Amino acid sequence: MSIQRINNPNQISGPGMVTLIEKAKPKLAMVSTAFLSEDRLCALALSMWKKDKRLRSCDADSFILALYKACQFGLDPTGIGNQGHIIAYKGRAEFVRGWGGVITMAARRGINIDTFAVYDADEFEVARYVNPDGYHIGLHHKECRDNPDEIGEVRAAYAIATCKDWEQPMVEVAWRHDIEKIRKNSASPGSPAWKTWYAEMARKTAVNRLSKRLPLFVPVKELVDNDRINKTSVPIAGIANEDTFYEGRVGNDVIDAPIDGKFVKEKTSSDGQLDLISTALGLRNDYPDIYVQVFGRKDVTKMDVKELQTLVDKVTDIGTHAASVSSAELVKHESQEDELGF
Length: 342
Fold this sequence. Notes:
Blueprint: H1 14-31, H2 38-51, H3 53-56, H4 60-73, E1 84-89, E2 92-97, H5 99-108, E3 112-119, E4 123-131, E5 134-142, E6 154-162, E7 170-175, H6 176-184, H7 192-196, H8 198-211, E8 217-224, E9 228-235, H9 269-286, H10 288-295, H11 305-340
């Protein structure tokens, strides 16, 4: 007996997703931050959706909602710097913040986070004590890496958060048995990330554990009734992270890899069209006046590949020439100022 696969009824084709993203852009603009504009996010979204077949199998509305959340927090959802990811989970696209997202959002609020791995060869000691002035924790870590063949394995990792307004830093230490417990309970305990980059995964564990204690509230804008903005704040521990959806994956074998990692598939004509659409939207952001002159009111989602390529090349050529002329004029102007002694 054969099993017939039932597709998600809310799946959408390539050009259709472009239209959906364009329609969502005004709402994304209302909640966007200075760290991630709606134009850049939409260009990234097309690239992600095109490259990950798992995302294309998700409910289309859930993908837009995931973009909305990434826009709210101002985190790059492509996995760059491990700020954030959009994963496929049980037929829905979900936005999750990465451990780099914790470090990024903390830095925006004046909190600096450092994280390190401790090897067998290192000197490492944790001292906790209480006196009339309060509770204190001290760390002693001397790295011994003279001989790479003798440094041993990772036996701990720690994360330290400092802020000029705090009397003392916050410290989170994850020992080997803590890290192993998390690894064994993860979705892919034998994944390439754990095998090849154990130290990085250990540091990630320390940062994620520290985030649960950080007095960090992230300011966000929420869209109310589709036309009104409500400003609020969200505790960083309340933002879904990589461990929230254990079965989730991004465009590589593990969630810890960038979505533009090793996942490669054969390019089709539809992919080529999406590439050009994404490029066109990026040019519209970079050269708005030139774009309007060349494209006019044409809908890029309804153009064939040949016509789209011709117009993209034209905008690129004119924009590049205009930029080079502007640069030359700027150099000439600065030279004249130097000659006049300004």
